[in-house]
Each structure stands twice: as structure tokens, then as C-alpha cells.
């Protein structure tokens, strides 16, 4: 792995996260209480993981048997009470596997929150059964658990940052040049797209003004239909602009925005065709069928984006 771990590294982490001897003793007691839930934990962990669509890229139901023992081992180590350089190395090995697989950090944080909820519920359940509702150990035990999980999460996320930096630092000069150039080129292209969309928006707004002028020249129906089409195109341009801005800020690019452009352009064409009587009926039916297909595609893409957002 190429990472040198010393006892002082773990001592520093224990100090920073205020994990004292009392907390270590509490975690051992928690381990005695929760060890019987290890199989239930592994099942619940896997079921929770499958709820996230992006997790399917890294794990499937067939993988459950392969990783079940590893998940149970991690669960047991969590309450071992032996938090030294060897334990820190163990966490870093786990982080390396996750980083090599490309598992996103948000998924790691989400699953760590699940572990926190799972363990807290079982701590409360066991202590209430043993000592009654007013047990003061509940808060003390859950606080010790949170300290350890926060330490665990911090180490994993720190490895991700170091992993990305190390990948760049260890690259040869040619690779570094390509990486820097590609990033700058991508940024320039993003700016060019935004500027192009802004210009396009101004042009469409100008077309809208020109179509409104038709009202004052007696061509009411043509001006109204064309103005509505222009507003539709302007709306889709704004959708694309907002989508590109979100993408530059680190978000995902909304595919539905591009489908909406095609849909809006086709609808505008249909509105204009409604004023023309020279076009054959078959052509107009073809436009109608295209609108229907684009509408279905837009609905499907939008639904997948909504599910992914959940």
C-alpha cells in the first residue's frame, strides 16, 4: 500500500477524536451486547447498500456471500477494543479497496450513517431490556460509538484525498501535462458552451420581440403561435444553461435538458405548421408521432433522474 503507519499516528487520532480509555471500555461492552446481531447486521448492511442505484455498479446479490464474512469481521473488529497502528492499517486497507473500485465517498458516508443507526437502535434495545427506560448508559455508549465511527470515516476519507493526490504526484511530466491541459481545455469548452447558450438566449428573445410586433401588423394568429414557440425554445435554452452551470459546480449533467430541447423545437415546428395548409397530412402526422416519441423519452429520462436523486 505504500503507507507507513506508526503507533504515534493512532495515538494522535485517538487524541483528536477524544477516544479515551473509558470510551474503549464502553466499546468493548457494546461489543458484548451487539455481537449476537452480527449476522443480522451483515444482512441489513447489504440490503441497505442495494437501495442505492449507484451501488449496483460495484456489488450485486451474487457478491453477498463473498463479502458477508468480511463485513462480519469488520463489525467484530469495530468493538475489539484494540485500537492501535494495526487497526489503523486495517482501516486503510479497506479504504484502498474502496478507492481502487472507485466507490464514491458519498456512498461511504451514507453507509457509515446506517451503521450508526443500526448499532444505536440495538444498544437502546438491549439496555432498555436489561436496565429499564431510564438507563443513563445509553447516551454514554452511543457517544463512544459515534467517536469511533467518526474516526473510522475520517481515516477513509483522508485516504481518498491522499490517493488522488498521490496518483497525480506519481505521474510522469508528460502525464501531468496532459492532465493539466485536459482540465483547462474542458473548462474553456464549458465556458464556451455557457457563452453560446447566453447568445442563443438573446437571439431567441429577439425573435420573440419580432413575433410580438406581428400583432401590430394585423398578423395576429401567426404572431401568437410564433411567440409561443419562441417562449418554448427560450425556456429550454434556460434549462440547458442551468444544467451546464450545475455541471460546472460538480453536479451531474441532466440528460433530460437535451431531450427537452428537441421536444421544444419539434413542438414549435408543429405550432408553425398549424398555420400552413400546404403541407400534406402525412407530414403533420409524422411531426405528431415524433412529438409523442420525444415526450415518452423525456418522461422516461426524467423518471430515472428523479429516482437517482432519491
TrEMBL record:
Domain named Globin-sensor: residues: 8-164
Q: Name one GO molecular function term.
A: oxygen binding
> Which terms are listed as keywords in the entry?
Cell membrane, Membrane, Transmembrane, Transmembrane helix
Q: Where are its TM segments located?
A: 185-208, 220-241, 253-275, 281-301
Q: Where in the cell is it found?
A: Cell membrane
Topology of the protein relative to the lipid bilayer: Multi-pass membrane protein
Q: Which domain of life is it from?
A: Bacteria
Query: An example Gene Ontology cellular component term from the record?
Result: plasma membrane
Q: This chain belongs to which protein, by name?
A: Globin-sensor domain-containing protein
Q: Which organism is it from?
A: Desulfurobacterium indicum
